[in-house]
Amino acid sequence: YISWPVVLAAGTWTFNLIHHKGTTRGIYSIQLDDVEKGTIDGYASSAQWNVTNAVTGITISTTKKYILKIKMTSKNPSSSDYYGAIAGVRLLRTA
Description:
- This protein is mostly beta strands.
- The chain has strands spanning about 1-10, 10-20, 25-30, 35-40, 50-60, 65-75, 85-95.
- The termini are far apart.
């Protein structure tokens, strides 16, 4: 996994993962303070670059510092491995 401290204000957030999909990619678990908020499957039958996938509707009740963690937890049955290739992340407050 990789992690960063982030300060999030109370509200509703969207997490965007900008990544490269392919035949060897796993499934990312998106977590805040070790609580899973959603998953993103990195598998594709052919290489795809700079794909953006989102986890929406993340509710933050208290403004504070959280630990954002992206963890490789599993893989698509069609994937041959658990690799990840992240180009960027973005957190957007939507409400």
